[in-house]
Structures are given as C-alpha cells and as structure tokens.
Amino acid sequence: MGAGQSRSSNQLVVPQANQALDQLKYEIAQELGIQIPQDGYYGFMATRDTGAIGGHITRRLVQIAEQQLAGKFTR
C-alpha cells in the first residue's frame, strides 16, 4: 500500500469527505503530539495513539453535527 492508502474496508457515504477527514486526522494528531508516519504505514504506531486519534475524530465530528443541528433549530 502506498502513502495515504488505508486497508480499512469502511466506505465513506460521501467520498469527497475523505480529504476533510484526512485533514482532521492530521490536526488532531498534532494537537495530541502524535507523529503520523509520512509513508502512510501505521503498523509501527502504538494502538493507544491510533485509538486516541480515532476517538478524538469521533468527538469532533459529533460536536460539528450538534452545532449544525442546533443552528437549524434556532433559526
């Protein structure tokens, strides 16, 4: 697998969201002080680190959805 490719079988409902999620992953990793491998291979990363990034991505996505829903109901 080349750089930036994933072995995940998950498919995004909106394929264009891939770039935004990738950007979010790098932002969160930087906030947590975790270095993402340049070659895209995550096999040498600690499970704790990859889990922390994934957990924070999920929290951030929930926050974004809550803000968008709140905006729809306050208008």
TrEMBL record:
Q: Which PROSITE patterns match?
A: SASP_1 (PS00304)
UniProt entry keywords in alphabetical sequence: DNA-binding
* Top-level lineage group: Bacteria
**Primary role:** SASP are bound to spore DNA. They are double-stranded DNA-binding proteins that cause DNA to change to an a-like conformation. They protect the DNA backbone from chemical and enzymatic cleavage and are thus involved in dormant spore's high resistance to UV light.
Q: Which family does it belong to?
A: Belongs to the alpha/beta-type SASP family.
Quote the protein name from its UniProt record.
Alpha/beta-type small acid-soluble spore protein
Protein's organism: Paenibacillus ehimensis
